[in-house]
Amino acid sequence: MTFAAGALCLGGIVLFVGLAAGALLAFDEPGSASGDALFDAYVWRVARFTLLQATLSTLLSILLAIPVARALSRQGAFFGRVWVVRLMALPLGLPALVAALGLIGIWGRQGALNGLLAHLGLDQPVSIYGLSGILLAHVFFNMPLAVRLMLAGLSRIPGEYWLVGANLGMSPLSLFRFVEWPVIRGLLPGIAGLIFMLCATSFTLVLTLGGGPAASTIEVAIYQALRFDFDPPRAIALSLLQIAMTGALLVVLKLLTPKPEEGRGSGRRVRRFDGRNGPGRMGDHAMIGLAVLFVLLPLGSVVASGLRADMIGLAGDPLVRRALVTSLAISLVSGLLSVCSTAVMIRTRQMLLRPRQVARGDRLFAGGIAMSASLVLLVPPVVLGAGWFLLLRPLGDVARFAPALVVLINMLMALPFVYRVLEPAMESHFARTGRLAESLGLNGWHRLRFIDWPRLKRPGLMALSFACALSLGDLGAVALFGSQDMVTLPWLLYSRMGSYRSTDAAGLALFLGTVCLLLTIAGTPSARNDQRRPDDAG
Fold first, then answer.
1. I want to staple 463 with a disulfide (CB 3.0 to 4.6 A). Which of 127, 161, 315, 421 is the partner?
2. CA–CA separation, 242 vs 210, rounded Å?
3. In this predicted structure, what is the pLDDT of residue 59?
4. Rounded distance between C-alpha atoms, residue 249 and residue 251, angstroms
């Protein structure tokens, strides 16, 4: 039964992605020239800008994250540290549109920074639109992510390393060179690749802050080619280029990512002795404070702007209520599908690899399951939407299929995050309880009820909360298939921004951001668990 369910989930994912990719490859319309469109000057200009902004965003995010992660690692006992670490997780669960509004409130033409400069009698040199705004937004999202991942790696350094470094009188520079940098260097390929992939496939931030055709990424160009110009050949050329770029990057990451090397120790409590003098402590606290301000100020701008809106009037608006119900329904269904299908596939993979001698076919099947979580990285949501748009166009109005398509695309979008949360928890759980459950003859529903669910409830709910938050704040799929009959909160927010109803947009942003952040916080560990297990920081 488990094998059949796992095969069904894997087959469904591969079929959904394969049909979209096949539709792009097979598209041939009289008068079309998709092959010529691939060599169009506009296509290559968009590709160059995509690579440029993704590279700069990745470099800036990592260079800023390293000192912040080191400061948090050194200062492990100050008041509120747990909440600072949690703050680093909030941008991941924040809808991109909400973050864009918050950044505009701080860095925009009428933002707080330019207002301060004008008050001081200076010109207003800060512009949020174009390449600078895209970089700022990407750093806002990805620098905290890099901090969390680096902090998790630094927290796994055995306590004996710090004790030996203190006994040898090693300077902070020597500790960084011989203890911290080897760990960070091993993490960099994975972190840089993840951030680069997120920035290269960025859609909402570029659509909002790009400022025009000169600052368009491939995904935005695909959306414009289908939604406004209705130029399928150009959309196909851009989609194929996107798949080629992301596929090449995944291969390079696979080759560059080293095997994890954990330092061996006796398991003693980690206690760092560096960064305790006055200058070191002040420098670390200043670095942490700047990072906190960088993340908090846009959030505070969203709250301040939202509170000035007519929240009661928005709550009574039938269109807002309908958009809320639609968004919640889509996020809940896509989140449940993502968590359930991922759990079934992980369990199937565990059962396939359980024997000491694994057959070649079973090994290939298990490898396909592991790779399925990365398919959405290879074929991003906008590319999936473009393929299914071409597939369904002969059947009439594509908007009729919009709800199902948005649910399925959002489910695939959440798979990498859900897989990362569930796989280690399920591996550890079944390694501890597998033999005991078999000896007791527990399987099926009884095993799920009495053994699996009590232990896997926490990571399952965590994965569900993140999946729902990602789906609730997504604009990519809805941007292609949204219509008057299917309006979500992000699409309504974007529409109000486009029609210059900034007050309503601020109120919707506050409402949407609050719901998503509550979902994200509900899925993060409690403060007690954060203190007991510092390695959970990532």
1. 421
2. 19
3. 94
4. 5
